[in-house]
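Reply to dn_fold:

You asked what the input looked like. This is it:
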Amino acid sequence: MLQITRSVPRRWLNEAALVLAWREHGVAMLFYAALSIAISWPTARDFTTRITSSGVDARHNLWLFWHTQQALLGHQPLFGAPLLYYPRGISLLVHGVGPLTGLFALPFWGCGPEAAYNGALLISLWLSGYCTYLLARGLELDRGAALFAGVLVAAAPMSLAGLNNHVTKVFVGALPLVLLTLHRALDLRRSRLWAPATGLALLLVLLHNGYQFVFAALAIGYFVLAALLAAQKDQRWPLLRRIVLIGACTLALVGPLLFAIERAAADPEIIVDVNEDSFAAPDLIQFILPPHFSLLFGSFTQRVMQAASPDTKLNSETAISLTLIGLALCLLAWFVGRRGAESRWRRGRGWFVLAALFMLFALGPQLRAAGRTNFTEYNLPIVLPYAFLTGLPGLDFMRAPGRFMMLGFVAFAITASYGLAWLTQRLPRLRYTIVPVAIALALIEAWPAPFPQETLRPVPQF
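and this is what came back:
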């Protein structure tokens, strides 16, 4: 075999490597780029003339993108805005939108602020899908199932609803990167360098959004505990040493910024206790209803919610709808993992539990089901884990429980992909039909109505 390899011209080997790289990554990247343009329409049509916005937070987000550009040019500090509330200035360390999305806007500033804003949105969707694809491939799922996982995340209702104003919801791509690097760092057969890679991925999350950092930290704790419980006795001590290494690397890389944020949040003039907003949580039945902005089914959802739960607001904070095909495949993954002998299928159950946990957190401090918040003959509320989580030190800034689905959709997508991978393995002759049909069903249910566009007013150079 070695002799045959040596006899093959190097040019042929390079061409073969390029073909493999294109099949593994190029096709997926091109697919998610096309999907991002289509599903966010008419963002691409009005790329340089208007921004995708419903007129609330978008212009503020655009200012933050501009500030990131100015900071990289050396004109402003990255985490401070000295010209706001002049002469005191204001810290951006506790701001909801970090500088990461501003980096996505950098290549487009030459075409104007509209292009910078829209370009950041499109790249956010594109990378969210592609990074989820990388996570699924890292979990040894086949390309079709991995492609489906990326679709579920790129077309997640919360991400699409965020296109109107909340750019932090549009990009969730750093979350699957954290989970991928952690998965490899906990594998004792792999290099210890995955430990600092996990810290770097978590730093990216923190540079993007504080909520996503909390979600990623909870997921890390979940997988670390699961790995310790599943490890053989002779492997627990080496695994524990690896976990300590991961923690040390993460603390070294994330700790300085986290400490700076904590100091900024300690300013008595900053109000961070917004727990009352947490009662504006989603209703349980929204998980099984199509998105309220769905092109085909949105009006149906709005009618059902108006009749069953009129107090529930239908907005980007409550966009938690799970596609029916995704739910069916998640149930399949659970039962396959329960009966399956292969560890690969059993891992699907772990992702199922993670998705369920984040769905539970997304329901807020008390259960709301079909508009009801009090149950039994005693007319009592059902208190949920979220009520205790936000009482922990440093988490009093948490509000809008539905945001837990930013990571919940990633776990949901991976779980569903395990079910799809098992199905295509059992029916290999139909795999080229099953995967496109599953993608089409997911997109038909989630496809949004065209997004509103906003024309920016002329702004002089300042």
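Residues 233-265 form the longest helix (33 residues).
Hope that clears it up.
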